[in-house]
């Protein structure tokens, strides 16, 4: 667990799931993303939280936060096995606030 503090404020780590939606059917993509978001909420119960998604420039980013990015990855990664957009996805682990060190996790789980 990697808790960072700044003036007694706990800084959470992040797992960002970035999905390439370029040239993909919007209706199918939106439905798949909604299903994945619901699964993420359940998977993170007790260890983190799902904070929504952002759509822009052909990319959808799902935001999750918790005290340990690696723990978030262990919870979310198994969900990708049945996620139809997984081959178009990339996971970014961020170890603190925006601008903190990040690690990219390979895409293409199927």
Summarize the structure.
The protein has helices at residues 26-43, 69-76; strands spanning 4-6, 9-11, 13-20, 49-56, 59-66, 89-94, 102-105.
Number of domains: 1
Rounded mean pLDDT is 87
Total of DSSP H or I helical runs spanning 4+ residues:
2
Provide the gyration radius in Å. Answer: 14 Å
How many beta-strand runs?
7
Write the CATH homologous superfamily: Nucleotide cyclase, GGDEF domain
Q: Judging from the principal axes of the Cα atoms, what is the shape?
A: globular
Proportion of residues in β-strands: 35-45%
Quote the CATH topology. Answer: Alpha-Beta Plaits
Q: Can you tell me the residue ranges where pLDDT is under 50 for at least 5 consecutive residues?
A: 4-8
- Spatially, the strands of the biggest sheet line up as 4-5-3-6-7
Main sheet makeup: 5 strands, antiparallel
Helix/sheet category: alpha+beta
SSE order, one letter for each helix or strand: EEEHEEHEE
Distance from first to last alpha carbon:
29 Å
CATH class label: Alpha Beta
State the share of residues found in helices, binned by percent. Answer: 10-25%
CATH architecture: 2-Layer Sandwich
Structure notes:
- With 110 residues, the protein is of the alpha+beta class.
- It has a single domain, classed as 2-Layer Sandwich (Alpha-Beta Plaits).
- Helices cover 24% and strands 36% of the residues.
- It has helices spanning 26-43, 69-76, and strands spanning 4-6, 9-11, 13-20, 49-56, 59-66, 89-94, 102-105.
- The strands form 2 sheets. It has a 5-stranded antiparallel β-sheet with strand order 4-5-3-6-7. A two-stranded antiparallel ribbon has the order 1-2.
- A hairpin with a 2-residue loop joins strand 4 (49-56) and strand 5 (59-66).
- The protein starts with a strand and ends in a 5-residue tail after the last strand.
- Residues 4-8 have low confidence and may be disordered.
């Amino acid at each position: 667990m990697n808790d960072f503090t700044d003036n007694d404020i706990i800084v959470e780590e992040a797992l960002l799931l970035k999905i390439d939606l370029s040239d993909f059917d919007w209706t199918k993509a939106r439905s798949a993303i909604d299903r994945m978001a619901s699964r993420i909420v359940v998977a993170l119960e007790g260890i983190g939280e799902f904070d929504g998604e952002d759509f822009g420039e052909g990319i959808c980013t799902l935001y999750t936060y918790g005290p340990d990015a690696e723990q978030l990855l262990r919870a979310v990664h198994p969900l990708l096995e049945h996620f139809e957009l997984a081959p178009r996805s990339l996971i970014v682990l961020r170890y603190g606030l925006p601008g903190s060190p990040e690690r990219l996790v390979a895409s293409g789980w199927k």
